[in-house]
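Quick one, tokens below:
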């Protein structure tokens, strides 16, 4: 034969044989002059076809694994799109989001989920949540700083602002926040077990808030501070932020839930999809 057969030529030979073309017909169509050459090329074509089928199965498994990872990442992303109550804000909340976003596959989500509305809502939500968390942390500091100025108070505990912030959050959820429940506990020993005279702890809603000579005397000041926070511009601003975030959160969750149920992400590819040709440098 005059020309060199290519991979594509040999594939066509197998297709011709599968259609029922005889060896003589294949020899005529592809220009073979002897049976030995024909059989050699048909055998090579069969080996190439087998290798091709194996490669297809490997790619199918790899792609299935990749799409399973994308599905799992969407579920993780959906789980962290949640605004915490005012009294449960902590620095770890931001770090959990950053942990998801630092995943190399997270950038691929934009290619698998080309939805401008979804990504715009998430960007707005993320920025507003930062403002919300900063506001919550500032309010916590301001409350503790004001209490730290109270005379004769031995110590303001870490949980001092929590009952006030919880009451502020109840205003969002119930529109009718509960009143504080005050309780005085008397401690007779210090950390070394030594007796400590006149050492009392004011407990508000089950949380230690102040250690003082006469803790119960501070309950009026605590209630007044709580009322000021409830009616303050800062408190109202946090409530507004929380409501905006919950509204955006609902939209994002609905979008992601629909994507998960419809498996929309399988309709698109990303740079990390197996089998995607890339120039490696």
């Amino acid at each position: 034969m005059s020309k060199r057969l290519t991979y594509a030529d040999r594939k066509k030979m197998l297709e011709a044989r599968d259609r029922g073309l005889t060896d003589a017909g294949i020899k005529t169509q592809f220009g073979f002059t002897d049976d030995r050459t024909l059989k050699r090329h048909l055998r090579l074509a069969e080996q190439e076809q087998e290798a091709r089928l194996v490669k297809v199965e490997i790619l199918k498994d790899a792609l299935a694994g990749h799409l399973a990872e994308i599905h799992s990442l969407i579920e993780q992303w959906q789980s962290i799109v949640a605004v915490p109550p005012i009294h449960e804000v902590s620095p770890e909340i931001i770090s959990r989001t950053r942990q998801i976003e630092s995943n190399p596959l997270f950038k691929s989500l934009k290619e698998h989920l080309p939805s401008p509305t979804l990504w715009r809502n998430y960007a707005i939500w993320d920025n507003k949540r930062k403002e919300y968390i900063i506001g919550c942390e500032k309010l916590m500091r301001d409350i503790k700083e004001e209490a730290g100025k109270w005379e004769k108070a031995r110590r303001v505990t870490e949980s001092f602002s929590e009952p006030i912030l919880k009451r502020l959050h109840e205003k969002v959820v119930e529109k009718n926040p509960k009143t504080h429940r005050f309780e005085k506990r008397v401690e007779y020993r210090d950390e070394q077990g030594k007796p400590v005279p006149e050492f009392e702890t004011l407990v508000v809603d089950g949380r230690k808030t102040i250690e003082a000579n006469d803790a119960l005397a501070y309950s009026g000041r605590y209630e007044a501070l709580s009322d000021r926070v409830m009616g303050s511009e800062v408190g109202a601003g946090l409530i507004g932020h929380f409501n905006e975030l919950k509204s955006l959160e609902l939209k994002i969750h609905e979008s992601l839930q629909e994507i998960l149920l419809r498996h929309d992400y399988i309709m698109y590819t990303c740079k990390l999809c197996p089998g995607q040709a890339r120039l490696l440098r």
